[in-house]
Amino acid sequence: MAKSQVSMTVNDKKVEGLVEPRMLLIHFLREQLHLTGPHIGCDTSHCGACTVDLDGKSVKSCTMFAVQVNGADIRTIEGMAAADGTLHALQEGFREMHGLQCGFCTPGMIVRAYRLLQENKDPTEDEIRFGISGNLCRCTGYQNIVKAIQYAAAKISGVPFQEAAE
Amino acid sequence: MIPGSFAYHRPSSVKEAVGLLGSLGDDARAIAGGHSLIPMMKLRLASPSHLVDLVGVADLKGIREDGKDILIGAMTTQHEVIASDLLTKKIPILSETATLIADPQVRYVGTIGGNVANGDPGNDMPAVMMCLNATYHAVGKSGERRIAAREFYQGAYFTALEPGEIVTAIRIPTPAAGHGYAYEKLKRKVGDYATAAAAVVLTASGGKVTSCSIGLTNVAETPLWAEEASKILTGSALDAATVKKAVAAAEAITSPASDSRGPAAYRTKMAGVMLTRALGRAKARAGF
Ligand SMILES: Cc1cc2nc3c(=O)[nH]c(=O)nc-3n(C[C@H](O)[C@H](O)[C@H](O)COP(=O)(O)OP(=O)(O)OC[C@H]3O[C@@H](n4cnc5c(N)ncnc54)[C@H](O)[C@@H]3O)c2cc1C
Ligand code: FES
Ligand code: FES
Questions:
Q1: Is B35 in the pocket of ligand 1 (CB under 6 A)?
Q2: Rounded CA Rg of chain B
Q3: Which of A102, A110, A111 is the best mutation target for the ligand 3 pocket, counting ligand atoms within 8 Å of the beta carbon and taking the most?
Q4: Helix (H) or strand (E) holding A27
């Protein structure tokens, strides 16, 4: 099948590539752009490990063709920290609150939480749990992931983070 | 999992989309959000040789009032349904249902047009559209026609759409202000299709039901409109005995498959339980 030229902005950089129409976005990101932060977990649209931010939406890059997103603006976990290496508040939150164990789900979790906090600066615990319900974690039991997101929300809003009593 | 090869087309108008689907023939498929189609292509349960992407067709977007109806463009995403003030105010059962579909990521891209046109009995919107007596606007090479949701579903993945026809919009008669509604869905986890689900829309006056409509999801080859059950409830005070009779009538039209969601008899019973709960919530909302 003839290949198509695609161009998009990924983590603030213009990128181009030549893809077969059937190339999934996750494969384009990982194999052509060598951005291996977005993971392939289930490959069946369920786990959210492949989540990236695309034109202001959280999407599963395993369920999308690269040709479909020609021209899009994409952010992956690699584009979260500042250029000087300062961690994003979410990354800091995941570190401080032990929001990860094996870390496999983390890139998807953080990128998803990034959009959630863009839409809702001060989410309740229920809103966080509902907001990350498309991301599976096999290790943490979610408790510390929720705390990590609460930590980041507080930090972004400039208020002290108070851990809820257990 | 890598899908089979295909050529990608991105029309910018309905005319161009329908023209492409018509000229490319049976091996061409429309793609909307892709969240039913791409998983099927990855499993090679679908191998279209052409994909006609509707995402660039601006006319398929938008939600607006049109006289006594509300028109929803086929490419409106579930996320946009939930975010719509107009729908939340006038047809709140739609955002209640959309919130129970899949997960946030899927709702950002999955469309209402794809959900109703897909023909999978597991999709949640079709039964709600039957309940609301919606009409689908379909455009093909011979022009536009309108198909009632209640006549659209013919079998699993088998609908009244002709090859090459696309759904451009959904037309819903705006329910009366103050109506009661509920969508009750039993699922095993977030992102699961229904074990059974029930949609109810009703109006009431003086403690009596003045109109009632019921739809059922995933308990037959197609979504179901429970006409008999709706009739039984109309005129009643939704008293326990009448509800029981209506629930029995609704259960009687189900014919679910036994699968990983449970044996057929269980799923039929769950359809009844979901209906009972939906009636209870609709009743409270209608201000009995
Ligand atoms: C993990 C996961 C969980 C899910 N859970 C649920 C759930 O609980 N409930 C539920 O209802 N759905 C669920 N879905 C399906 C999801 O809602 C789909 O987005 C939806 O069924 C199809 O919409 P789409 O826009 O993605 O369509 P696509 O996948 O692009 O298309 C689906 C089919 O419809 C056709 N089509 C699309 N648009 C049109 C049109 N305008 N006119 C004519 N034909 C058209 C396509 O050719 C294709 O055959 C789930 C999906 C995933 C991945
Ligand atoms: S790999 Fe994409 S959802 Fe699991
Ligand atoms: S930390 Fe291991 S899957 Fe989430």
A1: yes
A2: 19
A3: A102
A4: helix A25-27
Residue B1 falls within a domain, yes or no? no
What is the value of ipTM here, to two decimals? 0.96
Helix residue ranges, H only, chain B: 14-24, 37-42, 78-83, 85-90, 92-99, 104-109, 112-117, 125-131, 227-233, 240-252, 264-285
Domain of residue B160, residue span: 60-173
Last residue of a domain, one of A45, A76, A107: A76
Residue A135 belongs to domain with CATH number: 1.10.150.120
pLDDT tens, position by position, B8-52: 999 999 999 999 999 998 899 999 999 999 999 999 999 999 999
Q: CB distance B103–A44 less than 8 Å? A: no
Query: Are residues A8 and A64 both part of a single domain?
Result: yes
Residues A66 and A113 in one domain: no
Q: Has this prediction a pTM greater than 0.95? A: yes
Asked if B220 and B158 sit in the same domain, the reply is no
- What is each CA distance from A97 to A80, A100, A153, B59, B160, in whole angstroms? 18, 9, 13, 47, 54
